[in-house]
Every structure is written in C-alpha cells, then in structure tokens.
Amino acid sequence: MKNNKLTSFLTSQIFLISIVSSSAFAFDSDYYVERNQDNKVILSLDNTENESLIDLILMGGDEIQGATALVIDDGVAENFIGDGGQFIWLNRFTPAPTEFPFILEEVSVIFGDNGVTAGQDIEILVYEDTDGDGDPATGAVLLATYNETILTADQVTFNVYSLKPSVQLYGPGDVLIGVVNRSGAEGTNDFPAALDQTNTQVRSWAATYLVGDVPVNPPLPGDEQWGTIDSFGFAGNWIIRGAGTQGYTVGGTLSGLLPGNELIVQNNNGDDLTLTADGSYTFLTLLNDNDLYNVTVLSEPTGPIQNCTVSNESGTITGVSISNVDISCDNLDLIFRNGFE
Length: 341
Ligand SMILES: [Ca+2]
Ligand SMILES: [Ca+2]
Hints:
By secondary structure, the chain is mostly beta strands. The protein folds into 3 domains: 8-58, no CATH class; 67-246, Jelly Rolls, CATH 2.60.120; 251-340, no CATH class. The protein is built from 1 helix and 24 strands. It has one helix at residues 332-340; strands at residues 27-35, 41-47, 53-58, 67-70, 79-81, 88-93, 102-110, 121-129, 140-149, 158-169, 174-180, 193-196, 204-208, 225-228, 237-238, 240-246, 251-255, 263-267, 270-275, 279-282, 292-299, 307-310, 314-316, 327-330. The chain has a 6-stranded antiparallel sheet, with no helix packed on it. Strands 4-16-7-10 form a 4-stranded antiparallel sheet, with no helix packed on it. The protein has a 4-stranded mixed sheet with strand order 20-17-24-22, with no helix packed on it. The model is unreliable at 1-65 (pLDDT under 50). One calcium ion binds next to loops.
C-alpha cells in the first residue's frame, strides 16, 4: 500500500474520475497522487485484492492553454532497447487535422541507464509524413534535426529539450519524432531507448543503416533493419513525446498588381514573401497566439512603378489566423498618362 501523498497543487485542481467498469476490481478508498517529472499528474488506485496498481495519467500541472501534447506512452518504461551501435528510435503521432498548423516546441525523452550516461550525444529528428498511409517508410520528409546531449539517464526522468528553432507543421498528417544515440558506435553495449510495454500503440519504429552509424539527415526507412519495435519482438511504445501549440497564419488579398510586376512584402521585418499576381497570399512563418504582426512592403513593383498600400497592417493574434491584411497597388503609370498625355 502506498502512503497517501497529497501535495499542494491539488488545492487548485479538480479531477473528475469515473470508473467505467469496476466489476473486475475492488478499489479501496486509498489513493495516491503525484506530479511526475513531465508535469503530468499520476493518480494510482490501489487494488486491495492483489495489491496491483492501476495508474491513470492525467494532463495537469502547468499545461499551456491550447497546447497539443504528442504522447503515445504511459510514462513508465518496462524495457530498454539497444542495437550495439547507432540506431533511430522513432514515434509516429497523428494530431487531429484541426490542430494544424502546429508549432512543435519541445521534445521529451526517457533514457535507459545501461551503458548510457549524462553528457552523451544524441540527435533529435523531426519528420512530417502527410501521405495519410500511416507508414513512415513512405513520404516522410525530414524537417529539422537537433544535436543535444543526454541530461539524465536513470530510466525514469524525462529529458526535456526545447527546440530552437521550433518546427512548423502544416499537416494534416503524421508527425514523426526520432532519437539517435550519436555516442553509440559499432559494438557499443548501450540500451538507451526506453520502451513502455504496458499497451502497444504500434506507433514506434526502429531503423539501422548498412553504413553502420546513422547517416547525417537520415532517410526513412533504414536500409538495414526497419520496422515497428513490435516486429522485433518488443511490443510497446518508445518514451518520446512532443509538445507544442497551435500556429496561426497572417495574410490577406492583393489587388491592382499589373501583369508581369511583382512586390516583396514582410511580416515583422522578415519572412519575405514575393507576390507576383493578385489574389490571396499567406506568410509562411507561423505565429503563436498573442504574437504581434506587422505587414510592410519591402520593395514595390518597378516594371512599371506601382505604389502599394497595406490596410489592417498590424495587430495581435487572438486565437484566429489573420486574413484581412489587404494590399492594394495603384497604377501610377496610368495616372501619369491620363494626366499628362
Ligand atoms: Ca507515409
Ligand atoms: Ca508502461
């Protein structure tokens, strides 16, 4: 029996718990609540019949409003996997279409401690796969890589990595987050990849490459070994998680641009966008909620010269994308001709 351990955050949090079917279990009134390293709240109900535990992991703590958490594991590893060298272990996440565009800001990983120590090099890989077949072997595009080091290797602690810069995902589709043990070398007897084997989601893959070490900017699939970790005889989920927020776009409608002419516009003095025809336009860089936007014309059309003005050019993102920053270009050439010829 665990001790009751109610900590202070409960004073400001209320959980509604319903047990759908209790026929198989006899819960007593003792329960145990803690906040784990990943800022999730774990509630354990003790089964007095056989002293087994059922742990429910609830979202809680300092979760950001509107944040999206990419999680397929239960936060507790039952196994640790290695390959005697470098390999990729990778999870496939599928955010709801309404959660795109999505800004991936953070990746969390638990590492084993067998042949693995703090300070060893790892690489985080982020791919997007929008072909809709659920298979990372087809259509995966590598969007970003991050060279990091292991912070804690103790089988339980989430290593939290802030992605700088964050990754912009336009989706909809799969987000693939992989980790490579870059300190691993052929023959290394390390077991870095924490595996949750409580309930497999069949969303965890492993890859190795014929060249030995995992190549730079590794393509998927691996050309030596490739498959779900389940297919290697270890059914389960890698403990790799992602977190981020909804992204918002800024744009509007361009009118009056003469054929063959072009202008360059900016948002917040960057994110240059060349416009070559009338119609709707959207800046590529996503903004977070509450970000400021400010659209300006960097260079006006020159062939012929046109003067372009921006309306609704600045403001603050408040939970919706902006699509009314309209740009209107005058035809000075025509005005001059009409006035002076
Ligand atoms: Ca695919
Ligand atoms: Ca588990």
